[in-house]
């Protein structure tokens, strides 16, 4: 809370500093900063530079239609629609470009034929009735299709198609009043749009493609990793234990913030990824929607972590000094073990290997959580300490237990993903014998003899909650 | 946590039920459900129906260009650009329509003149050099403008303009190679786009306008209200106290979920609202960006509430039965008082009146939080109760204290909004004398004698934290 308010204050101070400069100073500042910002933008994601060059190339390619006589003679001035299509359809990822391209082509064909039909129908009603009938159709169609665009599901995948549908329908049916050769017009429009969409999609797919599916997979994994990084630094930061790299530690602790608002970008990436063909490690019908579930659990966990973050910089460290070395130790154990588990899960997801030690880490953090419970239950405690003194520690411990529960859920949903996507999650490199024995001893990894069919589900014998309680 | 997992299970069951129906059954189901969904879509927000009719009307109006000879003679087939502009520019809110319209007009003019200049420059280089030079310009411009579109700030407000800029530039400069009358073409394109944008904006503004600013203002207030509603139901739900309307209570408790992911929609609404002229209660330069701050605090508070929500349906009520009627009572007091405060703040924001009793409620909830602290400090406690038994209660109390802190922050930022937007937050209807005296007694409302100038800041004498501690 305190740190957040400090953040707000800093922004205000920055704004005031800017205001002090006057208009000229601010303009000068912006001009000086601009190239630096440009450079940073490129450095942050070099694919942005490649994408820009690709757009330039696609527009250049399609404008060749104008320069070669044989091409131009067939299409004439409508060649412009090809340029327009490339500019409008070309998006950053393959999925988005394919989605827009297919939407545009399909909508143009459908609306073109409908417009053509309506034009003929209106023609039957004579000179006077024609504009009235066309006007009526245009009004009804524009209104009803606009209304369909409010459907959340339709909006997510076909919004652009519906827009192009209205546009093409109006274009063909209304032009029909003046131009008798609307069949030729419709034909030309359709073929130029095909050329444009084909150029855009080809350049997008064949030159350094950016797959929305890859981005989604990596961003979901990175989000889990960010939570792990927070928990890694949390223990020492919370209990003010000196460690190396104080500043970089702070940065790690802030990383989780971007997870909190990741919903919309994940949803749109899923929609893009669903347009994409088989690529790299992903089949055509990869269970993209399952990423939303993992993402949602990650965000729920991040909300707890945001609450935990409020306890750093709070008064927690002072009253804890006397009595709670044990509490402190256990909290740090829970935090570090769940950090390891989350990081291992993120890595396993990124490399698409089976997480080998994640379950062990989760079990350890659970055991630590249960030990903490037993410790707080012990009758020796509570005699001479004020309850008030350990409220923050208890709250932190309680929140950490929540985090462990979410880490478990995340693990389960990643395993579900592995089983849904069939044989794609491979075993990691075999562990050393010593490590294997250790895991078996904990009852965590069940030596799986043979894989049965295409579903290589990871079979893990999890010690039940009761067993852990007994152990704790 | 448990309820969430139950939710996931339910969805799976629904999906399985759907799968059992077979393809035909599912199609039939969808066809049957479709009209009901359409009806619900309209009932949820009747402005959607009005918007759809408005789009139909605008397209109809602009297609009149085709039907009247005097209009058509001037523009010819380029009249189509007007139809295209209306379809593409017309958005749900006035701000979005204005933003797109202005972007389109400005970008067309700028790119048109630039394209015209480049065409003349290329003409100087002779028959052979012309296409090469034009090609080079098109490539460089398309690539660099595409790169600019990655700037988050530019993307937020001018993304569409940059797209149209590339499009128009390519159109004018490339067409120039074939068509010598590009000045006329540029002129016609510009005027038809002006006509289209003007029609779209006029219909959008003058027939039942939907203001993005209004929507933003109301949605931020509604989000605060949702948190209040959760807290209202939380106490009784958490401690399993029977109350009327169990089901509606559950619905209230779920309302806060939409607040968690409100960031992106708020940001886009702010961007739209900034295009809007003075309307209703808002001036032209209303501090729209300040809503982002209030929204951010609301979300932070919602994260705590999501954590609190995890404790409903948990084992909290059982071990609390013996010792903690006092704890329970105080938790309920904190929760109900901060609920009242948040609801009052939301109402004050919606009606743009000064919140009169919100500070009193916040103070009361603070006092209750401090009483809880003192109670836990008391030496009588801790003797024979297990610490473990009251962990959930302590955690809930601790989280509620956090919520109170956020409620305070939200109150402050609403007051800031009131002072930034000058004379627009009016006093609510005067309270009864009894209520006023009560508030004065608590030292909460300072009888403000006169308002000084345009800044009617609400002057409130808040009892300091120390005073409250002493009182508790």
Task: Give an overview in words.
- 2 copies of one chain form a homodimer.
- With 472 residues, chain A is mainly alpha-helical.
- Helices cover 75% and strands 0% of the residues of chain A.
- The first copy, chain A, has 20 helices and no strands.
- The two termini of chain A are 34 Å apart.
- Residues 1-15, 315-322 and 430-472 of chain A have low confidence and may be disordered.
The average pLDDT of chain A is 78
Radius of gyration of chain A: 30 Å
Uncertain segments of chain A are 1-15, 315-322, 430-472
User: Could you state the oligomeric state of the chains shown?
Assistant: homodimer
Which outline of chain A best applies? elongated
Profile the largest sheet of chain A: none
Tally of helical segments of chain A: 20
Separation of termini of chain A?
Answer: 34 Å
What is the percentage of strand-forming residues of chain A? under 5%
Largest interface: A-B, 87 and 87 residues
Number of strands of chain A: 0
- Structural class of chain A, by secondary structure, is mainly alpha
- Tell me the helix content of chain A: over 70%
- Write down the secondary-structure element order of chain A: HHHHHHHHHHHHHHHHHHHH
């Amino acid at each position: 809370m305190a740190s957040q308010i400090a953040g707000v204050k800093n922004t205000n101070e920055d704004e005031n500093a800017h205001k002090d400069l006057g208009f000229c100073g601010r303009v000068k500042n912006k001009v000086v900063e601009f190239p630096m910002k440009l450079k940073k933008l490129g450095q942050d994601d070099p694919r942005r530079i490649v994408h820009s060059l690709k757009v330039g190339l696609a527009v250049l390619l399609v404008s060749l239609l104008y320069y070669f006589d044989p091409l131009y003679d067939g299409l004439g001035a409508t060649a412009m629609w090809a340029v327009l299509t490339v500019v409008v359809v070309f998006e950053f990822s393959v999925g988005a470009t394919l989605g827009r391209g297919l939407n545009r082509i399909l909508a143009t064909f459908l609306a073109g034929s409908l417009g053509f039909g309506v034009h003929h129908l209106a023609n039957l009603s004579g000179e006077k009735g024609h504009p009235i009938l066309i006007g009526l159709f245009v009004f009804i169609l524009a209104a009803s299709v606009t209304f369909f665009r409010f459907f959340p599901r339709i909006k997510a995948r076909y919004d652009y198609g519906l827009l192009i549908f209205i546009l093409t329908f109006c274009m063909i049916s209304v032009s029909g009043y003046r131009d008798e050769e609307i069949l030729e017009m419709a034909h030309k429009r359709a073929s130029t749009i095909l050329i444009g969409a084909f150029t855009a999609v080809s350049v997008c797919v064949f030159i350094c493609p950016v797959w929305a599916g890859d981005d989604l997979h990596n961003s979901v994994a990175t989000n889990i990793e960010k939570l792990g990084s927070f928990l890694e630094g949390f223990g020492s930061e919370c209990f003010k234990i000196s460690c190396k790299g104080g500043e970089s530690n702070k940065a790690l602790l802030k990383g989780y913030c971007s997870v909190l608002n990741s919903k919309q970008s994940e949803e749109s990436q899923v929609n893009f990824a669903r347009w994409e063909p088989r690529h790299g490690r992903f089949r055509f019908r990869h269970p993209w929607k399952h990423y939303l579930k993992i993402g949602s659990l990650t965000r729920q966990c991040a909300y707890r972590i945001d609450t935990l973050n409020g306890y750093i910089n709070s008064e927690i460290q002072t009253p804890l000094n006397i009595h709670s070395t044990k509490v402190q130790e256990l909290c740090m154990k829970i935090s570090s073990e769940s950090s390891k588990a989350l990081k291992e899960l993120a890595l396993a997801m990124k490399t698409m290997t089976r997480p080998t030690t994640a379950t062990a880490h989760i079990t350890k953090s659970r055991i630590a959580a249960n030990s903490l419970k037993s410790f707080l239950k012990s009758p020796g405690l509570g005699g001479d300490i004020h309850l008030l003194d350990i409220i923050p520690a208890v709250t932190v411990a309680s929140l950490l237990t929540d985090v462990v529960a979410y880490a478990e859920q995340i693990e389960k949903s990643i395993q579900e993903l592995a089983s849904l996507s069939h044989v794609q999650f491979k075993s990691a490199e075999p562990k050393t014998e010593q490590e294997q024995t250790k895991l078996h001893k904990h009852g965590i990894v069940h030596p799986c003899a043979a894989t049965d069919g295409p579903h290589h589900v990871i079979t893990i014998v999890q010690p039940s909650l009761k067993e852990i309680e007994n152990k704790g």
